[in-house]
Amino acid sequence: MVRRKRVFSDNRFNFFPLIILILFSVFIYVGYVFFFNKPSVKVENKLLSSGGINSVIERNDTLIKSVEIYFVSENKIEKKIYESNENFINEEIILNIPYQNDNEILKFLKKNENKEVIVKHKLIYENIFFDSEYVSEKKLNVDILPPRIFNIETDGYTYIGGLGFIMYDTSPDTEKTFVDNGNGDLFFPITLKNNENFSNLVFFSCSNKPCANNKLIINAIDKAGNVLKFSQKIRTIKNKKWDTITIPLPRELIRNKFNMIFNDNIEVLEKEDFLKMNIDERIQNDNKIKKITEAIHPSLLFDSSFKQLSNSKVSSKYSEKRRYYFRGNPKEIIDTKFHYGIDLSSIKNAPVYSSEKGEVVHVDDSLGIYGKVVIINHGLGFYSLYSHLSDIFVQIDDKVSKKTKIGTTGTTGFAFGDHLHYGIYLQGIPIDPVEFFDKNYLNIKIFEPYKKFINKKKN
Q1: Residue 20 lies inside a defined structural domain of this protein
Q2: For 281-325, how does the pLDDT look when each residue is reduced to its tens digit (9 = 90+)?
Q3: How far is CA 265 from its chain centroid?
Q4: Cα-flanking dihedrals φ and ψ of residue 22, to 5°?
Q5: Among the four 77, 85, 99, 179, which has the fewest Cβ within 10 Å?
């Protein structure tokens, strides 16, 4: 029997380098996941204040199982301020953690006033291979002392729908200050540097209702976010009553108004069409007017009472409550709105003059329900609005006075007949224009407080 000799080919494939390459690739990938596929933390605060801590956590394709946040003092004392064991699924996790009502945390910060404290985030997270812990630390200086508010002056009252004033000083660390009427409106000051402090004058209104709880809240905020709130009693004198009226809507006229405002051509006006105009369009138009009239010019541009449209009568008052129904169906009230201005009626296409000195800041040929509009800035946050005009004779940046003819009355926008809708705005909030026709009222509420405030700087 002949035994064959076993022969090995030199072309045999060597798996060893491939195995090494695969293992090396796996090692590199696992290393990448371990070192780079982990969360990140950003602390938004520049200083630690009494207001709270704001952090942004990026998951970076991990599953975060728990978050703990600590304050660590220079002598290594830890104070836990936040803990959560929920699974966070949003890629970006925004944590706004207030603790102004937590006496233990505030006590800890007070002990470390003007010192450095570490803000430590400890995260337990999971990636595709394993669970791990991530720790982030950032040092911040502690500043929990709020600014001061002092030397408060006010006459302590407003007429309903009217305006008031309040003067006060704030300490030099104040970065922002304003007053809150409790009805959703904030009013900001004109401010002067007075020695080391700031002197502030705020004109405000509670609109067509009393200030909430018959008080104003003065707010002062420093760079760290510390807030001081001071409550000042304000009495609202209810010296007027406003009517509730019911308005029948002629469908054909309202349809024509709808087509003009929306550049449409509907043949039949439905309830939804009217609501689109009286609610949606009105909100959009009022928001635009608010944005235009929010800015505060630091100087007073007028010096006398405002002038009513010549030979006119007030046909609709400020804060008049209007209930709308389609003619022929008075039992179905389809909408209710307050009238934030006054309607002045005179002859057809009556000449309209600026009610006082100022500067034109807005001209609009078609501001929705208001039609053709002119808005004039009178300084210190006061503006006048003229709407439903048929013609406009001024341009933006024009300086105007009582002798400046700005337009003529008309029926543009949502107006049934020829008239001028006239409004006064204070920092975007509509107030009763009738008050501005009274020079004595303006002396008490604007001119004298402003003069006293300006003289502070001279003294």
Answers
A1: no
A2: 999 999 999 999 999 999 999 999 999 999 999 999 999 999 999
A3: 36
A4: -65, -45
A5: 85
Shared-domain flag, residues 252 and 328: yes
**In the block, residue with structure tokens 């006459």:** 155
DSSP string, 147-186: P-EEEEE---EEETTSEEEEEEEE-TTEEEEEEE-SSS-E
What are the φ and ψ backbone dihedral angles of 292, each rounded to 5 degrees? -70, -35
Return d(Cα 433, Cα 441) in angstroms, integer: 12
Whole-prediction pTM: 0.84
| Secondary structure of residue 316 in the 3-state scheme | strand
Interatomic CA distance for residues 99 and 17, integer angstroms: 60
pLDDT beyond 90 at 35: no
Q: What's CA 396's distance to the chain center, in Å?
A: 25
Residue (of 317, 286, 324) closest to 429 by Cα position: 286
Three-state secondary structure of 286-311: HHHHHHHCCCCCCCECCCCCCCCCCC
**Per-residue pLDDT reduced to its tens digit, 369-411:** 999 999 999 999 999 999 999 999 999 999 999 999 999 999 9
CA-to-CA distance for 103 and 382, rounded, in angstroms? 43
Assess if residue 60 is contained within a domain. yes
**Domain for residue 14, yes or no?**
no
Residue type, 443: N
Q: Is the distance from CB of 197 to CB of 227 less than 8 angstroms? A: no
271, 419: one domain:
yes
Residues 6+ apart with CB under 8 A from 415: 371, 388, 421
Distance CA 363, CA 382 (A): 17
List the CATH number of the domain containing 55.
2.60.40.1940
Domain around 179: 149-239+449-458
Residue 427 φ/ψ, nearest 5 degrees? 50, 45
Asked if 362 and 404 sit in the same domain, the reply is yes
Q: What is the pLDDT of residue 456?
A: 77
Pick the closest to residue 382 from 303, 277, 284 (CA basis). Answer: 303
- Count CB atoms within 10 A of the CB of residue 103: 10
Tokens at 40, concatenated: 């990140």
Query: Which CATH number belongs to the domain containing residue 160 in this structure?
Result: 2.60.40.10
- pLDDT, mean of residues 221-228: 92
Tokens, residue 74 = 């220079």
Count up the domains in the chain and report the number. 3
Where is the domain boundary, 108, 141, 174?
Answer: 141
> Which residues are within 8 A (CB) of 144 and not within 5 positions of it... i.e. 6 or more apart?
48, 49, 50, 106, 109, 110, 113, 224, 226
- Confidence class for position 209, pLDDT limits 50, 70, 90: very high
Cα(174)–Cα(166) distance, integer angstroms: 17
